[in-house]
Amino acid sequence: MSAPHAPHASLWSLRFISMEATSGVVLLVAAALAFAWANSPWAHAYEQLWRLRITPGVAPGLLPVEDLHFWVNDGLMTVLFLLVGLEIRREVHDGALSDPKIATLPIVAALGGVVLPALLYVLINTDPTARRGWAIPTATDIAFAVGVLSLIARVSPALRLLLLTLAIIDDIVAILVIAIFYSNGLAPGGFLIVAAGVLLALAMQWLGIAAAAAYVLPGAVVWFGMLRSGVHPTLAGVLLGLLTPVTPAFGLRRRNPALLSEESPVMRVEAMLHPYVAFGIMPVFALANAGVSLQGLDLSGSVPLTIAAGVAAGLVLGKPLGISLAVLGAVRLRLCALPDGVRWPQALLLGVLGGIGFTMSIFIANLAFDDPVLLAAAKLAVLIASVVAAALGVVLGLLQPSPHALRARV
């Protein structure tokens, strides 16, 4: 897999991977803390914290009065989805997704890693309520997966970039799944508010307003419109990210041509948000959602048990098999070729690391199940399966031949 086209893209990818690797550790610590807290003598304080009702200080008549858990999952996570939208915008413009020859392999791999886990889940779960969770094992957590990969010295840079691209495509699929399958009771009036927010953002761009803070207002309008329309409000972040300009000259005065070599707005905003998302929003989300109480967990019923089994099987078995078989089929059919430095054992490693669902899997579980018992079963399965996938990834990675040995065989 060759590097993205833009000269700065490879350096950006290295910075991104380095930050994701570190944030993956922070994310794991936050999840462990939440799990320990929820099963400690202070478990009641954990529950009370996230049930704390928040009264909006701005437009209290319009914004809902919800608990802290809502504002983390539906508010803060919008910023994560904004970052995802920015990543997609950049990759489509001048990154790996801009060249079909480069993008074919991770796209095929990602689709294989979505279809097979979903099929496994549906085969295990016959109950209609349980089947709402079919998308839970289809997700990949970028930070956690890259964090595990960073522990393995015997992998090529091409595999790291391949995993990064696959995870971004995985996010695109997750966004489409949330928009299509987990948006309830669509209200047309809300889309008018979304359109107003989009038009406001486009008008500000036409005026050349480059300050990122200025776009908080149209972003809030789009978020509110999504909430009113029945579409999950976090998708407002994706929409705003896709609208972000990619030309370095945007918002710069023509009389100062020396500034035209600056990074584009999409890269500036992405670089600005990434540390806050990686070390703030995602750990807070993990703290709010990984606290599964074993005391209240009940797997004696057939439905919770099959949900847990479906999620675990999808992530630990479905993801590796789906990704590996998709890559094998695409290469055998000559639709694409393995990147330099990547061989079949590393393709299997890619699939195993894809089974680390964590953040996005838990997010989808929250949308799929209202029943606390079913939600707890799904979350626990995500946590266990992600840890198992991470452990298998480390073991398999240590068994890989070094990149020098691979080059010697070529």
Overview of this protein structure:
By secondary structure, the chain is mostly helical. The chain has 15 helices and 2 strands. A two-stranded antiparallel sheet has the order 1-2.
The coarse silhouette is globular
DSSP summary, beta strand count = 2
Helicity level: 55-70%
Number of helices: 15
Mind summarizing the main beta sheet?
2 strands, antiparallel
Radius of gyration: 21 Å
Named CATH topology of the domain at 9-66 and 99-175 and 289-409: Na+/H+ antiporter like fold
Distance between the termini: 16 Å
At the first level of CATH, the class of the domain at 9-66 and 99-175 and 289-409 is Mainly Alpha
Strand order of the largest sheet: 1-2
Strand content: under 5%
Identify the CATH architecture of the domain at 9-66 and 99-175 and 289-409.
Up-down Bundle
Order of helices and strands: HHEEHHHHHHHHHHHHH
The poorly predicted ranges are 1-9
Mean pLDDT: 83
* The named CATH superfamily of the domain at 9-66 and 99-175 and 289-409: Na+/H+ antiporter like domain
Give the helix/strand class.
mainly alpha
